Amino acid sequence: MSRNSFEGDVLASLRPRPGEREHIHAIAAVIIKRIRESGLADGMVVGSVARDTWISGDRDLDVFMLFSPSVSRDDLEEKGVRLARKIVEDIGAIPVEKYAEHPYINTIIDGLDVDLVPCYAVEEASSIQSAVDRTPFHTRYVKGRIAGLEDDVLLLKQFAKTGGVYGSDLMTEGLAGYLCEILVLYAGGFRPLIESVSQWKPGMVIDIEGHQKKAFDDPLVVIDPVDPKRNVAASLSLRRFEEFIELCRAYNNGPSAAFFGGPKVGRITQPGLQAVLDERGTSMYALVFPTPHQIPDIIVPQLRRTIGGISDLLCRNDFILNRAAGYMGDKECILIFEVIVDTLPPLKCHKGPPVHHPVNAGKFVSKYLDSAVFAGPYITESGTYAVEIRRKWLTVEALLSSEDIFTARMGKYIERSMRKNYTLFCGAECWNEEFSQFLYEFIHPSSPLMRLHDAI
Predict the structure, then answer these.
(1) Is 88 exposed, middle or buried (0-12, 13-18, 19+ CB in 10 A)?
(2) Which member of 29, 30, 41, 57 has the greatest number of CB atoms within 10 A?
């Protein structure tokens, strides 16, 4: 399928320059040479650099150190990190130990963000001993088939980035780079994929190799060509899947260069936040606490669990919640709650069991008969007991400032961090420069297509 004129212009800006290619491949060659000279492992460039599907300006280089499968897991981690650390130091860079499924070394070399990751050199993807062992198979699979479609992958990646649906991290829950490559291979190009996605519905299954061995209930199922029991699209949430469909449908109906213009970043000022809250007539509360020292794959689900738990706590205490969200920063996390009703009267009507249930009814009457109540116990028109009691928490601020906040369902590491130190902010005080983009997106939620609407 022929390209639109602007697609050609977009590609001219997306393709890495010759100097970029030479620079990144030269550094990769030095690292691989040192890995092989160690006699401990083989070296391999993986990811988009190896597959020539990286976008100009990207500064990420992933180098895997492939150890013999006979090496124990403990030795893989110890020797792998030690070797990576030595290589980095010998090059004159600073090694930083990070952790995914097992430790690896990250560093900056001549402006490139480099990861050196130990893995096992298994013969088949079905024999992997750690999750990262699968990555070299991904690289070989795509490299053997992507020739002639590299530009299509670049277009899809930029399209997804502009739409805000690119990135498989748990905060984004969007399309991974490898998933983009597989989708292009499946459809045979960018434009055929766009046309196809425009008609998709949740439950779509793609199995290029026809070897699926496990059922999935994810919105999109893309069976890994090198692992019949894995869904490449497992990280894609229903929301992002539907947003991707919306973007593709709009582009299919009216192609525009605006779909490749880069993600729109909005920020809000503190006076702007106050003005919005005044206009909406709502109240905002923010809980800010130190980010736990765990990987995002652990912390992000715990953030969501905690948001749900505190939202339930507010609702149990009769405060009316509009929306809630959270964000994990490098140093601090923030949980935001927009409340429609945040102040309540002292009186609370508490309903009891039906009168004709003697045991439970008796317990209810005994509990409140001699208590300090506004009224009751009495029998309602529906035949149940009720009592009008004094409400424990009259304001959201008082509740979230109290120890009762820890009766909410929380993630383990989030609770630990909050018990040590958390700060409650109210109204425009919730504003923070670090979180200004997150706050803007919280206050002004919109689908990707709506964000692009003015530019299309």
Answers:
(1) buried
(2) 41
> Among 169, 161, 135, which residue's Cα sits nearest to residue 54?
161
- CATH superfamily, domain at 5-135: Beta Polymerase, domain 2 (3.30.460.10)
Query: Taking the domains of the chain in order of start, what are their residue ranges?
Result: 5-135, 150-263, 270-344+393-454, 347-390
Look at 38-47, 258-267, 397-406 and tell me which has the smallest mean pLDDT.
Answer: 258-267
> DSSP assignment of 404-449, as one string?
GGGGS---HHHHHHHHH--EEEEGGGG--GGGHHHHHHHHS---HH
Q: What are phi and psi for residue 445, nearest 5 degrees?
A: -70, 140
pTM of the model: 0.88
Overall fold of domain 270-344+393-454:
Alpha-Beta Plaits (3.30.70)
pLDDT tens for each residue of 120-134: 999 888 788 888 999
Q: Report the alpha-carbon distance of residue 437 to residue 12 in Å, rounded.
A: 30
173 and 236 Cβ atoms separated by less than 8 Å: yes
**Separation of alpha carbons 317 and 299, rounded Å:** 27
pLDDT in tens, 100-111: 778 999 999 999
